[in-house]
Amino acid sequence: MGTVAATSWLNQKGYSNQLLSRYKKSKWLESFETGALRRVGDSVGYEGAIYTLQHQLALSIHPGGRAALSLLGKAHYLELAQSKVDLFGTEKEKLPAWCKKADWGIKLV
Q1: Which of 18, 82, 89, 98 has the smallest count of CB within 10 Å of its CB?
Q2: Could you read off the pLDDT of 60-108 as tens digits, one per residue?
């Protein structure tokens, strides 16, 4: 599984929009959603999005409930098909548009 790279984070790290455009033309990166990129060919799950939210955008948003227990390997029952993930964070924190728009195969609540 891959991760998403937030374009705002890449810009902060010194990657200009012109350079990112060149990387896309060279097929190194591709647009994931508006404001986010990924490596060409990478599949990105919600876990990769959570990583980006926490490590690139410095948000405290994290999975809770069953999803958190499952990620820790502490789930009591094996869930064959996860249908939703409860996300928690502070009241002021909002999910970026790319995170809301993406099709994760599950519902982020």
Answers
A1: 18
A2: 999 888 777 777 777 777 666 667 888 999 999 999 999 999 988 787 8
Q: What's the alpha-carbon Rg for the chain, to the nearest Å?
A: 15
**1 touches 48 (CB < 8 A):** yes
Cα 20 → chain centroid: 19
What gap in Å lies between CA 16 and CA 108, rounded to an integer? 31
Q: What's the CA gap between 100 and 32, in Å, rounded?
A: 12
Flag whether the pTM goes above 0.90.
no
Q: Which residue has the tokens 């909002």?
A: 94
Question: Cα angle at 99 between 98 and 102, to 5 degrees?
Answer: 75
